[in-house]
């Protein structure tokens, strides 16, 4: 879906159409959950701190998120998908992989199927979606971002290697800002640069991710579309350049990690019962501490309170903390919710 949260808000409130819009909170440590295309022209992006977004676009309008509405639209879109295939792998509320090899509607091609699905989404939800059509998940995902908004990109097997080779590595799944900077230091800026690196070189520099990078750079991805894959957990963690040496430093660092976690929770619509704090010390010892609720939550304030309480309960900070992470797990379906009350720590 195109700028999903923001597009839903503009659909439902005509006064917001054509204006730079952010879904999120403008105050405190607020973060942009989604930005309209009008806002993106000013460099406003999802996951950006709200103060930065306002600095880039003083005319930016913030609206609070309505996740119940976004979930309802997501279910509406997935019902459309189900008319074309049973092989649907949701990635978040606004994105999914579909395997349409069977051609259930006898439309003749995956491209025709994508076009019809996009047309139905527009007619039934008054929103737009972009699609990537290709021979594997990795290339289809890249293609889906290629002609946004309201676009379609088809990459055939013959086109795949050249398409991937021309892209910046920052577009690859699994290449975040830190990995992208590391690759740039190694002279790896495009898919072609990555393809030309030997597997041994990649293993030395990227360890367990090396094989994935090696295959992806050739446009190879053998993963199947996994329908109804249950979401087990949502997490975020950071390895620090300088070890954290006291509780105030840990609590300050925890804020950014929680912001990252909640962006992922909000995008996935996840609700879970267990909040886990992961700590790795300077001497590489690791430990976890958890708190479990009797009912599921996706509430940012509750997750933050539990995580900060777990930090306060740490037996030690010294010899310094080099990695900190928070995970929401014991994910439940919508109809499994119960009362949200703390239970005994695990």
TrEMBL record:
Keywords: Cytoplasm, DNA damage, DNA repair, DNA replication, DNA-binding, DNA-directed DNA polymerase, Magnesium, Metal-binding, Mutator protein, Nucleotidyltransferase, Transferase
UniProt enzyme class: transferase
Cofactor (UniProt): Mg(2+)
Residue numbers binding Mg(2+): 94
Domain UmuC: 1-176
UniProt remark on cofactor binding: Binds 2 magnesium ions per subunit.
Active site, per annotation: 95
Coiled-coil region: none
Site annotation Substrate discrimination: residues: 5
UniProt KW DNA repair keyword: yes
Compartmental location: Cytoplasm
Chemical reaction(s) catalysed: DNA(n) + a 2'-deoxyribonucleoside 5'-triphosphate = DNA(n+1) + diphosphate
Main location (coarse class): cytoplasm
Assembly: Monomer.
Function (record text): Poorly processive, error-prone DNA polymerase involved in untargeted mutagenesis. Copies undamaged DNA at stalled replication forks, which arise in vivo from mismatched or misaligned primer ends. These misaligned primers can be extended by PolIV. Exhibits no 3'-5' exonuclease (proofreading) activity. May be involved in translesional synthesis, in conjunction with the beta clamp from PolIII.
Protein name in UniProt: DNA polymerase IV
Originating organism: Sphingomonas colocasiae
Source species taxonomy: Bacteria, Pseudomonadati, Pseudomonadota, Alphaproteobacteria, Sphingomonadales
Gene designation per UniProt: dinB
